[in-house]
Amino acid sequence: MCTLEKRDNIYILTLTGDDDHRLNPKLLDSIRAAVNRVRSETTTPSVFITTAQGKFFSNGYDLAWSQSDPERHILMSSKLRLLVRDIISLPMPTIAAVSGHASAGGFILAQAHDYVLMRKDRGFLYMSEMDIKLVVPDWFVKLLKNKIGSPAALRDVVLRADKVTAEAAVAKGIIYSAHDSAEETVKAAVRLGEELVMRKWDGHVYGRNRKVLLADVLPALEFDETVEDVATANIVSSRL
User: What is the distance between the terminal CA atoms of the chain, rounded to a whole angstrom?
Assistant: First the structure.
């Protein structure tokens, strides 16, 4: 599901296996285990990088897995929110090296990091909810508002479901930088990580300052009204 490599003070988590890297409980648990391993091992200034093999960085929620039972979608939402909380609370800078398409929850996973780097030869960022007739959770929007400074860019991402290429994403202020290939994107992420490690910041201070910066996101992670509404509707339906 994922691997974790340590290069000096840089941890690189790579999503492996299924090319789509759909976010189901098994993958989310695997990523969370790696993130918490990084947290437990870190004693010196470090950096955490997330990337992926194949065509996709992540194609979002595993909707095919969840279709048979709404409780499954509730579980996926809960586990993604826990993972995002874990990443936000890491005591070190975090970088997403987006190596392919990042859709919906996959886009959100990337944006949970401090820096997003992306390949420009293939792939796009895509909030697909408008196109697949799903309501965007409030916590998605709160996170995106903290990451995308332009209201027009945010509108185009959420309400137009634009498929944003790396170069366009840089121009719109959605990502940090764009690179020629997946390999070059990871190399650039490592170089950035090395620069950040050299600052020798106190990780716990860094993590606390990030929490201050994302203060409105953290309480929003406690609840996903889109899945709770589905659960309530199913309970009512079962009683009729």
Answer: 41
Residue 235 maps to a domain:
no
Residue 70 sits in a domain of what CATH number? 3.90.226.10
The reply to whether 189 falls in a domain is yes
**What does the pLDDT read at residue 230?**
56
pLDDT at 23 (0 to 100): 96
Helices (H) and strands (E) in the chain, counts: 11, 10
Q: What share of the chain is helix, strand, coil (3-state, %, to 5)?
A: 50, 20, 35
Please name the amino acid found at residue 67: Q
Q: Which residue, chain included where needed, has tokens 């190596």?
A: 99
In a domain, 119, yes or no: yes
More confident residue, 62 or 19: 62
For 162-206, what is each residue's pLDDT tens digit?
A: 999 999 999 999 999 999 999 999 999 999 999 999 999 999 999
- Report the chain's mean pLDDT, rounded to a whole number: 93
| Region of residue 161 (phi > 0: left; psi between -120 and 50: alpha; otherwise: beta) | left
Tell me the residue range of the domain where 98 lies: 2-201+210-217
Q: How many residues does the chain have?
A: 240
**3 state DSSP class of 180:** coil
How far is the C-alpha of 116 from the C-alpha of 125, rounded, in Å? 11
Residue 229 pLDDT: 61
Instruction: Report the domain count for the chain.
Output: 1
Say if 180 falls within a structural domain: yes
